[in-house]
User: What shape does this take?
Amino acid sequence: MEENTKLGKKVAIRNIGISTKIHEIQPSMFEILKIKLFGHEPTAKVTNEMLERIIRRDYGNRATEVKQKLQQVVGDSLNSKNRISAAILKLANRDIKAIDHFIEVCNIDFRDVLSAAEYPGYSKVGFGNISTSMKKQLYISDWKQYSAWLNNT
Assistant: This one.
């Protein structure tokens, strides 16, 4: 028996005892729909729990060291700081020394880190004159790739 609630709420699959969050099942089908319909640029929402999981997944027994490094990240809100921190970890690609470099980059202009991590395809094309159709395709491709990395366990 499956019990569904609003997007982002818990989903319990009682017959096999699995509990997870909808956004961790699919690369946010709602975000993909918004891209297709309105051409909206997707924005990652990274919780403390998600960031903690990424740190443990990618850095294992060096998690404490990584958390200390990420204290240097500047953000105007908790979500902003978590989002930037996740982008740094993605770009560092499990290289603990690279974290320092990306922290320096983000503290000069956080958009450089976010665009490279969350929108790699779109960033390569540039922010110039591209068709709406191409923009949507790039957003979808980038969002699927980022979501897969973010939710990889």
